[in-house]
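Structural prep section.
Before we set up the soaks we want a predicted structure of the protein with zinc ion in place, mainly to decide which crystallisation condition to try first. Input record follows.
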Amino acid sequence: MSPSESCHHLLDSLSAYVDGELSEALCRELERHLADCEDCRVVIDTLKKTIELYRETIAEPEVPADVRARLFQRLKLEDYLD
Ligand SMILES: [Zn+2]
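Run finished without errors. Recording the C-alpha cells verbatim:
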C-alpha cells in the first residue's frame, strides 16, 4: 500500500477518531500511522482545533440584548425583563 492510499483510508476515520467514536483497533491503527505521518498529524490537529472552536461557540451562544428583548416581547414576557 502506498503512503497516500494509507492516508486516504485513515482520513475517512479521522472525524470518528476525534469524536472518540472509533473502535479501539482502528484507534491503534490510526495512532501508529500518525506516529510516522506528519501530513495526517497536521490534519488531525486542525480538525481538533476546529471542533473545539465549534463546541465553544455552541456552549456560549451570544444572544444580543435587543434580540432577547424582542423574543421576550413576542412571548409576552416583557414584564420579566430586568
Ligand atoms: Zn498519513
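Observations: The pocket of zinc ion is lined by residues 7, 33, 37, 39-40 (CB under 6 Å).
Flagged for discussion at group meeting.
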